[in-house]
Design brief:
The complex is a heterodimer of chains A (100) and B (463). With 100 residues, chain A is an all-alpha fold. Chain A has a domain of 62 residues. Chain A is built from four helices and no strands. In chain A, helix 2 packs antiparallel against helix 4 and helix 3 packs antiparallel against helix 4. With 463 residues, chain B is an alpha/beta fold. Chain B folds into three domains: 78 residues; 189 residues, no CATH class; 169 residues, TPP-binding domain (Rossmann fold, 3-Layer(aba) Sandwich). In chain B, strands 3-2-1-4-5-6 form a six-stranded parallel sheet. In chain B, helix 14 links the parallel strand 2 and strand 3. The radius of gyration of chain B is 26 Å and the shape is elongated. Classes of the chains: A mainly alpha (100), B alpha/beta (463). At the A-B interface, helix 1, helix 2, helix 3 and helix 4 of A face helix 1, helix 2, helix 3, helix 4 and helix 8 of B.
């Protein structure tokens, strides 16, 4: 087993454990923003997509890389924007009346 | 151009910001800031990659960033809150698709140069392709079911599981061949991609529309795991960390949903629940319901000290959240207390009902989870059930013959009085009779949620 793979597995296992302990404490009321926020974070594949599209590997890599960037950026921009839109609506009970 | 070690430091920073952002999702007060912290991490990752020494051409990248960003922006700004499950389904699919494309591009590039990748890269490439492809097509089917472009009923055919298992076996065999023999023909790779895309479709079609919340959560997880696999392929830790975070999030949410439905994940995925109407349990023959009218219901609500609203998806379908808030404001102005009891499966995805009520300006501290609200029902004057059915069915507690027996429910039947707003006497999604409707303390208020609530609001004003 290569050093790089082993290091990657260590990182993966620890991050999974950390993720599980953090997400277990997210209140149910925020589960939908959590999921759209997770979409945004999974848009991190944009890094891999940019490396593929920008490496000058040839037309096939360019096309696949371009599409991969488009998909990943839908997640990044779409995910963060819609999560922000939702979280903005979550308000605590104000003194009494809430203005429209 | 920046040095590789500087790149890695900034990728680490991005990963730390994702984690810091996620941590702030533990409270609605800090969640918005957390989302922005996470977005900052993403911006750093993108800028660093742009400046990376590995990046030599920029045209394709810029075009891709702008195109994808604009599509995402338009989706995010125009989506209706009721359609959030569809949006998340599409984004899951896009995430899976992105991983599939990156892994494929890496494979084809290496293959075309005739060099053999190391075994671990070869394996994770195949895994990235497989999980990415299943996530892509599986999510598109989930989207189509939620959007009602196709039937929400489970689609089954004879020997379905055997067939799926056979396809899976062929994929694994071909992928193993590609890993073991770098000289394997490239068509084998295209067959793996094609079969994995087909598998995604086949795995989701037998799952009923009502189980889509679990499926979306699970596909959310898959899209993260696919991203992590891509991270192994290109040896980039920030992808591995982010993918693992998303992967664990989706798994936990799907477990929560399964628990709320008292079903195992295996049963949701392979049980084809609701394919046949397996209505068992007690029959309602010979029982009658008591009907009430607007005036009577308004009086009870107006003089109640505590009202708990139990919203179901019917409320959201009728777009009656704003009427509920008006009713809440009126009751509170008269000195009563109004709370909302939210069952985990009340909406179409985890936490969906909370978002829909928040959109109608209902403060989040009035939205109580099942465990917090259940002890409250006993001292509640009126439980107002709007468009909810199975989640308040006492049979889940006390009728072992009922198909939903064991499912955790909201104890609306413990309230002093129950008003059930409903279109008609149809059974819940599993075709199960609801004892609550025949309870001596229960009064039925028939009609569509929006119209009835508007009339209730007008009536309470006059009390």
């Amino acid at each position: 087993m290569s050093e790089a793979l082993l290091g990657g597995i260590v990182v993966f296992v620890l991050a999974t454990y950390l993720g599980a302990s953090l997400i277990g404490r997210v209140p149910p009321t925020l589960h939908t923003p959590l999921m759209s926020g997770a979409n945004a974070v999974s848009g991190i594949t944009v890094v891999g997509a940019m490396l593929v599209a920008g490496a000058g590997f040839g037309w096939l890599s360019n096309v696949l890389g371009f599409l991969a960037i488009v998909f990943a950026m839908m997640n990044v921009i779409g995910g963060y924007t819609v999560t922000d839109r939702m979280l903005e609506m979550f308000k605590k009970a104000p003194g009494k009346e809430s203005p429209k | 151009m920046i040095a590789p070690w500087v790149e890695r430091v900034f990728y680490l920073l991005a990963a730390v910001l994702f984690i810091a952002g996620l941590k702030r999702l533990q409270s609605p007060e800090t969640a918005r800031l957390g989302n922005r912290i996470s977005a900052t991490g993403m911006l750093i990752a993108i800028v660093v990659t742009f400046l990376s020494s590995g990046t030599v051409t920029y045209g394709t990248i810029i075009a891709g960033l702008i195109t994808g960003g604009l599509i995402g922006l338009v989706m995010a700004k125009t989506v209706k809150m009721t359609s959030m499950p569809q949006m998340v389904a599409l984004l899951n699919g896009a995430g899976g698709g992105s991983s599939l494309l990156v892994a494929s591009a890496e494979f084809l590039h290496v293959e075309s140069r005739g060099i053999a990748p190391s075994v671990d890269v070869a394996i994770t490439t195949q895994l990235g392709v497989l999980i990415g492809a299943v996530t892509l097509t599986g999510s598109l089917i989930a989207f189509a079911k939620l959007q009602e472009l196709m039937t929400g009923r489970p689609i089954t055919f004879p020997a379905q599981k055997t067939f799926n298992a056979a396809i899976f076996a062929v994929i694994i065999a071909l992928a193993a061949w590609l890993v073991a023999a770098p000289t394997a023909p490239v068509w084998a790779f295209y067959v793996v991609v094609g079969l994995a895309l087909l598998l995604g479709v086949l795995l989701v079609i037998p799952i009923g529309g009502a189980d889509m919340p679990v499926v979306i959560a699970l596909l959310n997880s898959y899209s993260g795991i696919a991203a992590a696999m891509t991270g192994f392929v290109i040896r980039n830790e920030v992808l591995i960390v982010s993918g693992a975070l998303v992967g664990s999030s989706g798994i936990i949410l799907s477990q929560i949903m399964c628990k709320a439905m008292n079903r195992s994940l295996a049963n949701v995925l392979f049980g084809a629940f609701g394919a046949t109407s397996s209505a068992s349990g007690k029959s309602a023959a010979g029982l009658t319901v008591k009907e009430t009218n607007i005036e009577e219901a308004a009086l009870q609500l107006a003089y109640a000290q505590q009202v708990i609203v139990v919203p179901g998806y019917g409320l959201a379908v009728a777009q009656a959240q704003h009427q509920v808030r008006e009713l809440m404001d009126l009751i509170e102005k008269r000195g009563g207390v109004v709370k909302f009891a939210i069952h985990p499966v009340a909406g179409r995805m985890p936490g969906h009902m909370n978002v829909l009520l928040a959109e109608a300006n209902i403060p989040y501290d009035k939205l109580l989870d099942m465990d917090d609200v259940n002890p409250e029902f006993e001292r509640t004057d009126v439980a107002l059930v709007i468009g909810a059915n199975d989640v308040v069915n006492p049979a889940a507690r006390n009728d072992p013959s009922s198909p939903i027996h064991g499912m955790p429910i909201l104890n609306a039947d413990y309230a002093k009085r129950i008003i059930v707003m409903k279109r008609g006497m149809s059974a819940g999604f599993a075709g199960i009779e609801n004892e609550l409707f025949y309870d001596a303390k229960t009064q039925m208020l028939f009609g569509d949620a929006k119209g009835t609530l508007s009339k209730l609001v007008a009536e309470v004003k006059q009390v």
